[in-house]
Amino acid sequence: HVQLVESGGGSVKAGGSLSLSCSISGDTDGTKCMGWFRQASGREREGVAMIYTATGRTYYADSVKGRFTISADNAKSTLYLQMNALKPEDTAMYYCAIRSGWSGSFDAWGQGTQVTVS
Fold first, then answer.
1. Mean per-residue pLDDT for 86-91?
2. What is the structure's pLDDT at 103?
3. What DSSP letter does each residue of 19-56 carry, written as one string?
4. In the chain, what percentage of residues exceed pLDDT 70?
5. CA–CA separation, 38 vs 9, rounded Å?
6. How many CB atoms lie within 10 A of CB 75?
């Protein structure tokens, strides 16, 4: 049983920075991919960034490229999202998730942390 707990959300002015963390406990040996997602009020959840654990390769949504950086520790116990140059449109609930397959649905999710940019 894997548990994910996000932290680091908060309120910030446009142009500011926030750093999100996702603490992951349980058996993560089979984890292939780790990601951050967000859902703004009244909108569908969207992928923000993901990292493949075997290669370290990262992918970003076009809307955050050059501003956000995803990283993870070697033990796959913590996932990070550094967010710089934040914009009001980045306001959303941010979720971390992990996936045991190379593709498909993510298997486990955190409860989310709110990011508000004014």
1. 98
2. 83
3. EEEEEEES--TT--EEEEEEE-TTS--EEEEEEETTT-
4. 100
5. 12
6. 8
Given a contact cutoff of 8 angstroms between Cβ atoms, the answer to whether 38 and 49 are in contact is no
SS3 call for 90: helix
Q: What pLDDT does 27 receive?
A: 87
How many other C-beta atoms are found inside a 10 Å radius of the C-beta of residue 26? Answer: 12
Q: How far apart are CA 49 and CA 71, in angstroms?
A: 10
The owner of tokens 């993560």 is 28
Q: What is the rounded distance in angstroms from the CA atom of residue 73 to the CA atom of residue 86?
A: 24
Given a contact cutoff of 8 angstroms between Cβ atoms, the answer to whether 25 and 77 are in contact is: yes
| Pairing, β 58-60 against β 46-52 | antiparallel
> Which two structure tokens, joined as six digits, stand for 111?
């409860």
